[in-house]
Amino acid sequence: xxxxxxxxxxxxxxxxxxxxxxxxxxxxxxxxxxxxxxxxxxxxxxxxxxxxxxxxxxxxxxxxxxxxxxxxxxxxxxxxxxxxxxxxxxxxxxxxxxxxxxxxxxxxxxxxxxxxxxxxxxxxxxxxxxxxxxxxxxxxxxxxxxxxxxxxxxxxxxxxxxxxxxxxxxxxxxxxxxxxxxxxxxxxxxxxxxxxxxxxxxxxxxxxxxxxxxxxxxxxxxxxxxxxxxxxxxxxxxxxxxxxxxxxxxxxxxxxxxxxxxxxxxxxxxxxxxxxxxxxxxxxxxxxxxxxxxxxxxxxxxxxxxxxxxxxxxxxxxxxxxxxxxxxxxxxxxxxxxxxxxxxxxxxxxxxxxxxxxxxxxxxxxxxxxxxxxxxxxxxxxxxxxxxxxxxxxxxxxxxxxxxxxxxxxxxxxxxxxxxxxxxxxxxxxxxxxxxxxxxxxxxxxxxxxxxxxxxxxxxxxxxxxxxxxxxxxxxxxxxxxxxxxxxxxxxxxxxxxxxxxxxxxxxxxxxxxxxxxxxxxxxxxxxxxxxxxxxxxxxxxxxxxxxxxx
Length: 551
Known about the structure:
Number of strands: 18
Number of helices: 17
Strand order of the largest sheet: 3-4-10-12-11-13-14-15-16-17-18
CATH superfamily: Alpha/Beta hydrolase fold, catalytic domain
Number of domains: 1
């Protein structure tokens, strides 16, 4: 899990200009909206009103850091909302990968959101975007996440910030002792829940319907969507969910070592020792930049912690027990997820024979099944597919299966789209490559991202995806003008295959789900192995078959 988190930390660290309360010479055309939280003045863009950097809560900072967010007190006068707020602190990035951008200003007090709304919006569907970045990086002002195209289709679009890294997810016994509930960690998740509470109370003032809210996110944003689906504290705050490249991996228990990892509290003690901070007071005295960078360098892994209240159980257990939010789901994965995340896999062996030998040594009675799915004959591709499926493909199919079992509409997709710059770089359908198509932000990609060609075909595919996503948010059924109907997963394991254009298909990866479900079940039953990227060549010896697995 440590490698998994630190890897993503190097991939998606994205960084914003704080808004002021009053502007000296506001534009006379600037829209003003009065909300229960206070009045805000935004900007106009054609048929849209846009409000940036609206604070939805205050993050306790410095000597008070690592507490739940504090609801923002109502402000007097008109608050300026023309500029994005600061990003939450995250590790410094270098422009050496396709996800990196130059940094924007950051702050511990970073809990703001942005709203794009049609000028004539009334009771409109609401779409809430939660950025990815391994819970280490990301920001709601990334140009990839521009909400204009959604708002042009009648959606009130909201993007939120939440605390990241050690500042957002640290658990520690001293923090638990401070808490009236005996809990610590999950502060970033509490930020997301507080944002949804603010939206429920205030979004009607922008023309949005608080009873028709869709949460959505990619990668760690998709993980956050699952956390929200699992958390009783978020129940009733949203009504549909979209999870792009989410990963339903094991996570730490707050107070108990389990699944091959120490407790979250023990991890807090361990990172303190690595930073020569033997007390909570010492950690709170750290400069936030130095603390964030040092924790990342020391291998701290930000994840939610199973604490019995905010996250009652492991995600797989919550969904198996049908305790998750009973909402429609749209979920999917990318064919080439690992092509841009190769640090998640071990170097390939010299020969196919060596590959097969190592797999058989680790997988025992499951080795034949493994090698049918991930054959030695094409072992370099099999290595990429193995990790893709253990993290993303299995999760997407598990989500739609579990929601369908609740009687909820469930839609699955496979993003398999290539274009010249990506394919020539060996990055066909790489992790996050669907995002500019979902948002219509084809020209908003980072500097080293393979450039998307500005052609009619690419724009047509993007328009279809925007239609599917916004119609799902509006009605729970994804539809697109001039594109095929998207069959629900319940119909013979149907899914939408996004290649050159969307095309319905059946059963995307035969046998993949059943194999990874069996592997997870055995590891869960053994209690001493996590389930995440530790598969294929990185797998320990797989536990023997257990009661209740393979049924």
